[in-house]
Structures are given as C-alpha cells and as structure tokens.
Amino acid sequence: MQAAQQPQGGGGRDTAIPFTHQRALIPASTIEFPTQRLYATSAFILLQALKLYDVYLVYTAHYPEEQSSKLLKWWAFDCLYLFVLWIMQIPWLQFSKFKTIALAILLATIDLFIFSIPSAAITTVVLKALLGDALGKQISVSRGKMINVKDVVFDSSHILGRHTVHILPYGTAKLNPGDEIYCIPSNEIGSKNIYVPIVLNNTIPRTISLSRYDFDTEESVVNQYSGGDIHRATEIGHGKHDLEHYFVRVRHPGVYKLESIISKDGLDVRLYNRLVYVFVCPTAEFLPAPSTDYCSGEKDTLQFRVTGVPPLRVEYSRYVNDRRAKLKMDRIQPENLDSPLAKIPGGLENAEPAFFTSAHHTSFNWGASAQLTINLQHTFENTGDYKYMIDRVIDGAGNVMEPVDSAVAHFDVHKQPAVSFECKATDPVKLLIGEQSTQLPLSLKGDSPWELEYEYLAENADSAASATRHKTKISTDKSALQARAPGEYKLLRVSDKFCRGDILFPSTCQVIQPPLPAVGLEATPIPSECAGDTEIGMRFAADFQGTPPFALEYRIIKQNGRSKTVVEKKRERVDRSRHVFTYLPSSSGEYIYEFTVLDDRNYKNRNPEIQSIKQVVHPQPDAKFTGSAKSALRTCVGDDIELPVELSGTGPFVLTWALANQTYTDTITGNRHVIHVPRLSRAGHHVVSLVKIQDANDCIKDLEARDVIIDVRRDRPKVFFYTDEEEGALALVAEGEKARLPLRLTGEGPWKVTYRNVDKDPKKIRKLLLRDPNAEIEVTDKGQYELLSVEDAICKGDALPPLYTVEWIDKPKLSIAEDMVSLRDDGVYERQAVCEGVSDAVDIIFQGQGPFYTSYSQHHILPGKRDGMLLSTEEVRSGVSKTWIGMQTQQGGKYRYSFNEISDQRYMNPLKIRPPLVVEQTVHSLPAVKFASKSRYERTVCVGDTFDSDDVGAIWLELKGQAPFTVRLGLKHQSEPYGKTVLLENIETNKYKLELKDEVLAPGQYDLQLLSVRDSNGCTAGASGPETLLIIDAQDIATIVPTETCAEHCVGDTLEYSLSGIGPFTISYQFNGRNEKIKSATSRLTMIADKPGNLTIISVGDQRNKCRSFPKGMTKVIHQVPSSLVSGGREVIESIQEGEMVQATVDLVGTPPFDFEWQRSETIWDSNKKRYFKGDVLERHTVHNVEDHHYAINTSVEGVIEVVRLKDRYCQYPRQHL
C-alpha cells in the first residue's frame, strides 16, 4: 500500500486551523478572536443602553405620540446589528440564517412590548376623544350607581374653539454685564471714547438714558443716546435666545447707571440695577530734582507725584550702573482715608457683584482722584549712573498704567576728588641757584577743572603763623604746582567740577635750594717706607661740600725742563663728602697736579678753584665701619646713634673721626669700638668719616674707610583721625554694620598703630600694621575710639587727637494706633470684637526713615488652645509713616497678628521685633436658625384654625449662637406678593417652640420662611436653605359646589361638582326624594343625569371626616343642552407683550342667562413640529348670569383658553366628563 500523504507545511494533525476560525471575516492574525468578541459584546451593551434611554424619553413625554418613530428606529438598529454580526462570523458568536432571523424577531417583539404601553395610552385617548364615555360607565343621578352611558349621545359640537395666548418675554437690559472697570487718562478727558457694554434681551433700543455721577462735584447728570450714538455689536455667540450686545460711548469719569431704555416699539425695558465705574487713570511722575550731579556719600530726597484713586501702589526700578533693583511702594493714600477700595485687595476685579449696584453705596466720593507727593530719601553710596524708573502705577480700583513721560530720573554720582604730592620726604624737590622756579608734581583724581588751595612756609620762617595761603586752578590731571622759592608747600583743600575732595598724603612737599659744590684739598706726599726723606706719590684728601655724588677731574702733567706733558687725566667719582685718593707716578720726575672740574648731583662743570700742586717724585694702622654702619642710616631728630667700628693694628689706638667739620678723638684699647654720635638736632644729611689712626708704635695713618651717611628726618611720624572740619569726628551707622574710621599717617610705611575703645573695654589695646597713609580702621562696636601710638619704618611717633565717636542710628519702630486698640496686662493689644464677615482694619504707625517694611503672621486660635494655626505671613511696604492692615473676619474665632520684622531706609536688612508686637481680635461667629429636622415636613390645617392648632403640630426652631436671640420670620400665602413679618424676641434657649396665633384665612399654600437671626453679640445673619422653609397646606372646609351655579340641567348631561378638602370625599344627596350616598376619590364629582328630576346635595366630608360642610339649597333641575363657540369655533393663536391684554370671545347658543366654566392650560411649544401643545391646567373660572349670547374673556396671562362647561337657563354641557 502507498503510505498516507502528510499535510504540507511540516505540521501534524494538532496544528490544523478549526473550521469556525476559518469562517471568520477578520482572521486572528489581524485582531484576536477574544478581542473581536469583546468589541461585539460592548457594541450590543451600548445599543441596549441607548434603547433604555429612549424608553425613558417615551415614558416621560407629555405627548407620547411625538415619540412614535422610536419603535421603527430600534427595529432597524437591532436588525442591522444582527446582520453585521452574521457577516463577521466571530467564533462563539456564529449564528445560522435561521437563528439570526429568530433573534431579530425576538428583539422586535421586546421592542414592541416596551414601546407599546405609551402607544396604548395614545390609542385610548384617541378613542375617548371620538366616542366619549359611550363605552364606559358613570354614576347615575337616579340611583347613585355605575351605569352604562352608551345611550347618551356625545356631541362635541356643543363646545368648539380654543384661544391660545403666548406672552412674549420682557425686554431686559444690563449695563456692564462683566463688571468691568475703565479709566480715562486725565489729559484725554472729554476726547477719548470709552465704549460701555449693555446687554439687551428681546428688544431693540430707540433711546438709552444714562446717568453719570461726577466724583469731584458729586453731581449727577443724565445723557440720552439715540440713533448713531448706540452701537450694535456683532454676533455674540452665547447660545441665548434674542440676546444682543450694544455699546454707548462715554468720555468723562464717573459712575454710570442706566436710567431708562425705550425700545423701537415704544415699550419700556426692565433694567438691572448695575453700575459701571470710569475712573481717572493713575499716573506717576518724578518731580524735577535740584541737581542731577551728586558726590558719593551725599544724601538727597527724590520726590515723585502720584495721581489716581487711592489707595495707590507704585512699582519702580533703581538702576545703579545698569544693575537693576525692583522696588515697590504701596498703600499710598491720604491720611484718614475711608474708601471701600482699601478693603478689597487686588482691586475691583476681586469685588463682590453687589459692589456694582447702587444699593451697596451711600456715596461715591471715594472714587475721586487724589494727588500725592512722596519723598524718597536715598544716599548715593556708589559712584556712577543712577536711574530711577517708574514701571507701573496701580490705583485702588485695580487700573494699571505704565508711565512713559516724566517717569525717569537720572543722576550722575561722582567720586570725590583727591590730591597729593608725588614728591618724597627723603628726596625734597630742589630749586637750583639761578633757576626761577621748579615743578611740584601732583596726583589729581576727579573731574577737571580743579581748584587747589595750598600753604607756603618759607624755609627760614620763625613759626607756622607766617605761612601764606594761595589758590590756583588746574585744568589737567598731569599738572604740577609751580614753586618759586624754597620752603614747605602744604595742600589744604581741593575741589573739582562737582565735589569737594580729600587731601591725601603726602600732602606736604619740601623745596630746598642746594648750595654750590665746593672742595677743600689737602695734599700729603707719600714717603717711602725705606727712606723717610723721599716721596713715592701724593696722597690727596678732598673735603667736598654739596650734594653727593661728586666728581673731581684732574690731570697729571710731567714737566721736563720747560716742556710739559699731560701724562694722565683722571676723574674721581665720590659719593661721600671726604675722599682720599693717591697717585703714584710710574716714573720719577717733577709732576704737576691740576684740578679742572667739580660736579655734584645738582651742579655740573664747576671750577674747583684748587691751586696746582707740584711734587718731585720720591704699615700703617687701619680702621673701618662694620655692621649697620656700612650703609646709610636713617633716624629722626633727637634720637641716639651708635656706629660700630672695627680696628686693626697694635693697640691701644687713637682714632680720629669727623662729623660736620668737627673732629673727635677716641682712645681705644680693643679691636672693636662703638662711636656714640652726638644727638642731631638738625634735619638733613650728616656724614661721619674716619680721619686717621695712630697705633702703639706711634705710626699714624690717614684712613680711607667708607663714610657713614646719617639721614636725619625733621618730623616724627604722626597718626590722627581724618574728619571733616564741619561735621566733627562722629560716625553714624546702622547697628551691626561696620564703621570705617579714616586715618592720616605721616612718615614712612609700614606703620604700627595701636588704639582702643574708651567706652568699651578701655584696657584692651588693639594693634594694626598699615601700609597706606590714608588707611581706615574697621570697627563693629560703638563708642569713642582713641589712637595710642604710631611707629613707622624709621622711628616712633605721636598719636594726635581727636577721638572718633561711633554711634548707632536709631532703629525703626512699629506701634499700633492707640485709639483703635486697648493694651492688656500681658502686653498684647486687643482690637474690638467684630462679627463674622464684617470688614475691619487697624492702623499701624512707623517710626524711622521711610519707605518702611514689616512682616506679620496671622494665626487662628482655636477655642481652648494657646497656640494658633498659622494662616499666612504677610508683608507691608509703605512710603508713609501711617498705614493699615486688613483683619481676617471671614471665619469666626480668635485671630492673632504677630509683627516679627521691620526695616526702613537706613536698616535695609529686616530687624527682629523683640518681643513681637501682637494684636488679637475676636471674630464672633454668625448665629444661625433653622427648623428642627423633626419639624421639617409638610403640614395641613383647616381654614379658620390657627397655625398653632393641634392639626399643625409643634414647630421647633434650632438656634446657634449666643443667647438671647431675636428671630425674624415671614408668613406668606401663595397669592400674596409679600406676606407679613413676625419678630420673635428674647429667645433664651437654643431650641424654641414656635407658636403662631394667626388665623388661617384662605386656603392654599403658606410659606413659613425664617428670614434672619441676631444674637447677644449683635451679629445678624440671614437664613437660607431648605431647612429655613416650612410649607403649610391650608385646606378649605370640605365643600361641594356645582361647577355651574345654574340649577337647570338637561338629560344626558354630566353633573359636575367641585369638591375641596382632602379626598376621598363622601357625598350624600337626594334625588326626587330618594337619599343616596356616594364616594369621590377626586375633587371633582361627576354624575350622569340619566333621568329628569330634582337633585339636592345634603352633605360632604373629607378623608379625615373633618372639615365637613352641609350645603343648603343645592338642588339641580335637569333640562336641555346649550352650546358655545370660543373665537368663532376656531383655534386661534395670539402673541402679546407681557402686561398687554387680549380678548377671547365666547359665542353662546341657548336660552340666557348662561353660566359656563372656562379654563387656562399651560402652553408647551414643540420645536420639532413647530406648534403649541396644551399642558397642565393652570386655572379654572366660572362665569355666571350671562344674558347676552356673546361673552369676552380678557386676560394678560399666557395659556390655552377654552370653555369646558356650559349651561343656559335650563341645561349644561358636557353631559359627561372625559
């Protein structure tokens, strides 16, 4: 046998695709089958939910026939769903054609059932309209039992016609529907147009009357707009019927209110009590400053003027060298301002809608514009460009303006000029003999030109009193002061183009006139060591006068007979006043030494005036300076000087040394010696020279050791505090900040300075090492500071007065207006208690230099707790010393306001207020009143009883608050426009039984409404909500009255009686002498006059067997049937304006006088079918004794008017009720 062929694809039997999956329209690879089943099930559930919604619409429709299409729609939807499901063939939801058709029939049957009940009701209504009660039963007059009325002919032509009245809605107008606010710039009043919106409903305006209350004059004027003055806007798009927007143009500030609007058809329009506020736009500008140039450290007051509706707020920026700081100043207002705007934070956009009604205000003078000038004190601490710019100004109404003109103030702050000499005390300026003048170099800082004042003290002046003062002007900073004579020049004052400046050290410059150089020469032949009578050269000892270094030129000439030969030219350069040099010729002969040129530092090419020296050319002890004496020494006048000397040779020695042409001899035993130089009393350069030395062998040697130059300074170093002559040595700084005390030092740095605080720890000596002659001392403590000593690089000096005093600037302070609070023993200020929701504020007073800043925290203290719950932390910035803060009154309880920080212009960093300034206020919760829950149910009472009768039951009030209470309530019948008000006083408990002795005078619904309650705290609150309303239904005494007063009826008529009370009713009557008793479950009793005769009603009672009545003489005689035609028997629809009267004519056919009943039913507009339907009956009226065959019904109320019952002298129609 041939092997069975395997299926292709490499799979086995288990991998075959089921047939049901193959039938699916959408494969599982596209959408998985469970997901397809989920989609199908969800679609079915959605369709059934929509179907149930349509069922609800059918059952709740006033006219179910309007919904007749719903059944066909759902038949189509159900069949379409099943058809799509059959095409999709989703596994588990695959149905055959037969099953699909069966399911469609099942769903159609269900649809027919659920939609058929309203349709059946429609069918019943139609049949009853056509056949009446011919197929039904009614109570017969003769027997009081239900009988068939098929023998009674129903003829609908007896009552024909219907008059439908439709009331067009009133035209209404609302000014400023969005509660917008406007402002007009002050320079555009009368020229700029402000378009104020008016929303009109169901009317087109012909004229609009608008009143304006002027804020300033407090007068009102009325302006009328018509024609082109009334601007109609484009489509509004609010989805409201007949709603249009119009605009009127105003050009002046004030409060505008609609006074009247006349529509184009001449009718008045109802006006909403709305206002629109047009204010003068706020402005701010800087007042001209006296100067735009200032010096660093100067203070001035910047003024700016703010105009607008207070309270105002200004936001401005300060630029210092392009570095911006944003600042603001709020609550700018006149003192004692009483404006409702001050209690509305954020402006009128946060105001309650009632603020835009005239009933909310007694006066509008708070809207007047005010002009205020604010002083802003500032200190120009840094140099550069200062610019103040007003960014925004916001008035109390919330109008925001950004000024452009006069809103910027520019200042140039210049650094104070400074001047000092660029000459050194160690190197005075020299005025040479023969020169007219010399230049004293200056270092100038500032803006040219400068004016300089200096003092000149002649070189040989006896005292400082002989000094002379001079002034000069300098145009460039590279200039120098011209000196024409030697002496001391001292800078006194300097000022530049803008500022007065400082004199920096060195402030003095010494001008000297150096003497001409001179030299004294001593020539000594050098003997030979071998033979004392021969010479080997010449030793020269030169004593120079002048300013080293010196230069001495000479030449050596050798003479041979009469011929002379210049052997050599030499130049001795000497930096000391004595110089020893030798010359040893290289060959024997006669030599001539000629000295030709003498130079010093200042003078050149001078004649030394030395005679030529001739010579025929033919170990000594030594000494030299050591240690510090090797170089120049510097000291001050009067200081001791010691010079160490090292000696060599065989002692003892005799050392000869010279000082200022004075020689001294010291006998020395050792190899080291210290020369004690006499105290020098004259400033300048002093030279100490070693002259010669003699040893123990009596060998004498002239010394060539280097001289020691002693520079003796005239002045000792000094230190003193630099102060302005006018202000004194006083520094005022904010506590905690550093004070910089300026110093002036003379001498040569660095300096060692000691000082102390005399007032605080005077024993503590502070030391400083300073390198700047204009240095400053930074201190952090207040008190008097005293300089104790100074020592520069050369010697000790003197500390000079004055003392420098540092004092703290007074800190800002905060207080509460005393007339607004009372101070408790615990230091807490208490504000008078207020009721919840009442606006309140308290004034705070600043002391210091404005603008001011403070922050405070608000706590809500719960009963029985000491610490409260933090509500918020607020900040107050004010440019004036008195401002206010708003109190929290929106919720009852105790509130604590703790002021924690304060700052002003001088203390920019906020300071802690210790202890904090605390204000407390109690806010009484509003009382409340409502009906107790067990009393909130509808009650009934009979007419004639009182409201506290047993039938009404007990009415309890529940009150919350502080007793005693006063409650105001209203009692109003549904027909009354206002009702009466009842005042209940001195209620001592929180639960009160209400007892009203008022008699029930009329039937209907009475509304017992709680209006307001006031407790012992004086707080009053309105009552609202469902728990404040109690409805009492007043039932009339169960009565029966015929719907027609005529006692004549016709056979076949339906005898109708109107019953009042609570059914079912029990009625006893007599017909042709036979007593009958029947029951009526409704307020209308209907009987068929099946036989002629007399029908007399005996009594009627309600369901409680109370409120019974026994009518007298209520007898009817059955006669023939009359007819009536309303509006000629046609169906008339008439539209009128509210308040207009319309007339519906009723034509009567029969024997007068006629009585008939007509009714007004609700009109319902069907927007789909574009026609009116009759709804619920709103009222019924019975007209008696009409002698004419025509009757007019005048009405101004909307509804469908039709006659429902009619009788003439003998008969009435209808004879049976539908």
From TrEMBL:
GO cellular component: nuclear pore transmembrane ring
Domain called Nucleoporin POM152 first Ig-like: residue spans: 172-278
Matching Pfam families: Ig-like_POM152, Ig-like_Pom152_1, Ig-like_Pom152_9, Ig_Pom152, TMD_POM152
Domain (Nucleoporin POM152 Ig-like): residue spans on this chain: 416-509, 716-802
Annotated ranges, domain Nucleoporin POM152 ninth Ig-like: 1038-1117
InterPro entries tied to this protein: Ig-like_POM152 (IPR056541), Ig-like_POM152_1st (IPR056542), Ig-like_POM152_9th (IPR056543), Ig_POM152 (IPR056544), Pom152 (IPR037701), TMD_POM152 (IPR056540)
A single BP term in Gene Ontology: nuclear pore organization
Domain Nucleoporin POM152 immunoglobulin-like: 513-623, 835-924
Keyword Transmembrane helix: yes
Keywords, sorted A to Z: Membrane, Transmembrane, Transmembrane helix
Start and end residues of each Nucleoporin POM152 N-terminal transmembrane domain: 33-116
Stored PANTHER family: NUCLEOPORIN POM152 (PTHR28206:SF1)
Name of the molecule in the record: Nucleoporin pom152
